[in-house]
Amino acid sequence: MSRVQSHPIIIVGGGPAGLATALHLARRAPALAQNLLLLEAQTYPRPKLCGGGITVHGEEQLARLGIRAAVPSFSVNRLVFRLGRREFAVTHPAAMRVIQRSEFDAALARAVIARGLAVHTGERLLDAIATPTGIELHTSHGQYHARVVIAADGANSVVRRKLRFTSEDGVARLLRVLSPVNPQQEPIWQTRTAVFDFSCIEQGIQGYAWDFPCYVDGEPCMNRGIFDSRIAARAPLPHGTLKHTFGDWLAERDIDLAQAQLEGHPVRWFQREAEIARPHVLLAGDAAGVDALFAEGISYAMEYGEVIAESVCAAFTRQDFSFTDYRPRLLRHRLGRLLLRRAALARALYRHRYPPLWGLFWRLAHYSPRPVQRAIGAWLAVLPGTRPGTDGQSPAAVPGESWT
């Protein structure tokens, strides 16, 4: 029987949510963070299915952590929102950048290790058991006891499953293919454009398809995918078939889905009443729920770290690990307001399969003055705000380190 190791805090999951939580704790409570442990099932760099888009919201989170993300990326200056033959475009310098998640996560992990925090990679969680004083974790390498466990291990969270958290509806689907491209022959590359194509709603898909320029291991590629939120469960018309709709969309781009390497995974979107905490346990990132409108996960996952760090520090100060304050704290925070805002908009829009609602929305967006478009973008944290203190406003640059 192996010896049980004790840690005040154990973070399960080494993606943006878990790594950002560790960094926020290191900044907020260095003495407490000194003995935390982060467990990651795979070794870096590990593949991760993702659109790879980091919006200004994500850049803000990196700035809050005092980090400059010097990883290879494609900078997007133009966002196109398409519905059939209708489209409108919003231009903004560095409106978004597209990264390769394996490189991004590995670099973020190096920043965590550089702060002197313990990261165990290649260590898979097998079981989680609640005890009167905390949580006992059994992994592929040993046994641990923690006063606080932070589950940042994705939509299929092992912690969530083993501790039998209440299962709520709220799991979306995402499919993706990566394909090499000649930048000289691809207009999207030449104009530095990212396309969000909502035409699939006419086939009963409650989401959009995307066309993002990117680099994969240094080579120019297109990151193409489709997202089905399935948020409007009571929509008047049945759902479409995700794979079939995606295949038709790819065919318009001369890609044969049967010959492509198709990847897919679930995305859990945030719900106000979903169970996200128990005594000694907090859920973060996809394990708790992210954005239901665009399935934007990176920025929201990182911002969870700030809220969790506040809750954990308060728990150790009061020696009260019930975490009954986590939900109200989250809902008061900008993160919670943004998640609820996007979920409400997703429910309002995605339940309608056909125009005129969508057509009216697109016409209004197309003919709106640029300041109105930017204001909407800031309200949704897609573009920077125009005034200090607005939800879309990025903070002043925080001196930080460059990591590669």
Walk me through the structure:
By secondary structure, the chain is of the alpha/beta class. It has two domains: about 5-80 and about 95-170 and about 270-350, FAD/NAD(P)-binding domain (3-Layer(bba) Sandwich), CATH 3.50.50.60; about 170-265, Alpha-Beta Plaits (2-Layer Sandwich). Helix content is about 30%, strand content about 30%. It has twelve helices and 18 strands. The strands form three sheets. Strands 1, 2, 7, 8, 9, 10, 16 and 17 form an eight-stranded mixed β-sheet that branches. Strands 3-6-5-12-13-14-11-15 form an eight-stranded mixed β-sheet. It is globular, with a radius of gyration of 21 Å.
Give the DSSP E fraction (strand runs of 2 or more residues).
25-35%
Q: How many extended strands?
A: 18
**Radius of gyration, whole Å:** 21 Å
Question: Which residues sit in consecutive blocks of at least 5 with pLDDT less than 50?
Answer: 386-404
CATH C-level class of the largest domain = Alpha Beta
- CATH topology grouping of the largest domain: FAD/NAD(P)-binding domain
- Average residue pLDDT: 88
Gross CATH architecture of the largest domain: 3-Layer(bba) Sandwich
The named CATH superfamily of the largest domain: FAD/NAD(P)-binding domain
Morphology? globular
Approximate helicity band: 25-40%
Structural class: alpha/beta
How many domain modules? 2
Main sheet makeup:
8 strands, mixed
The succession of helices and strands, N to C, reads EHHEEHEEEHEEEEHEHEEEHEEEHHHHHE
Specify the number of helices: 12
**How far apart are the termini?**
40 Å
